[in-house]
Specification:
Largest sheet: none
Strand content: under 5%
Number of domains: 1
Shape: elongated
Number of strands: 0
Order of helices and strands: HH
Radius of gyration: 13 Å
Oligomer: single chain
Structural class: mainly alpha
């Protein structure tokens, strides 16, 4: 997996975490849920990349 994709996946997880935190702070449940989803999506992509790299070597 290229370093650019790894950075993009990490950024996606961080962006989701920021949305989740903002939603929690403002009481906006939909923003909080959207953030959780984005964070989960980024984390799953990171895990997939790690598995791919493990089988590559």
């Amino acid at each position: 997996m290229s370093i650019g994709k790894k950075i993009a996946h990490k950024a996606e997880a961080m962006k989701g975490g920021a949305k989740k935190t903002t939603g929690r702070a403002t009481g906006n449940r939909s923003l909080q849920a959207e953030g959780r989803g984005g964070q989960l999506k980024g984390n799953i992509k990171q895990a997939g990349a790690k598995i791919k790299d493990a089988f590559k070597h």
